[in-house]
Amino acid sequence: MLEIETFKNPFYLASASFLTGMVIVVIGLLSQAFIELPDNGVFVWGIFTAMILIYSLFNTIMLFSFNAENKYWTLSVYSFIALGSLCVLTSWGLTGISLNESGGFRSIISILVIGYTIFLGIGWSIMKIVSFTMQRDQEKLKRDSDSIGHDLN
Length: 153
Fold this sequence. Notes:
The chain has 153 residues and is mostly helical. The chain has one domain. It contains four helices and no strands. The chain has helices spanning 10-30, 40-65, 70-95, 105-147.
């Protein structure tokens, strides 16, 4: 059974997102013999773009689950870059359509990158505000207890 500690490394989440996308694409391409799918390029690019979105959402949620560790934040950015690059290269390899030729997917991926950056900025700001507020509250509590004669140590 997987523990939450396993997900302290965001590369696991990125790997799970990519592998899930790969399984969906393979099943979709194999089922093309039975079911009529939209254009292969749209299908493959759409699935891998959705996996980037899913990673960014879950990773942002996980940022609040752990302590404000700089290591997790740095690994999150690196894994996002790796996942995005891998998804774009895989989509390009499977369809033969580059990112510039993929139509609206270039804009969508750009928006996802900007959105992920904003999510990280908001998360970082909230964590810093909470940390600062907790530190100020502890200092005030200590001063107040010292002034009435209680020792909190």
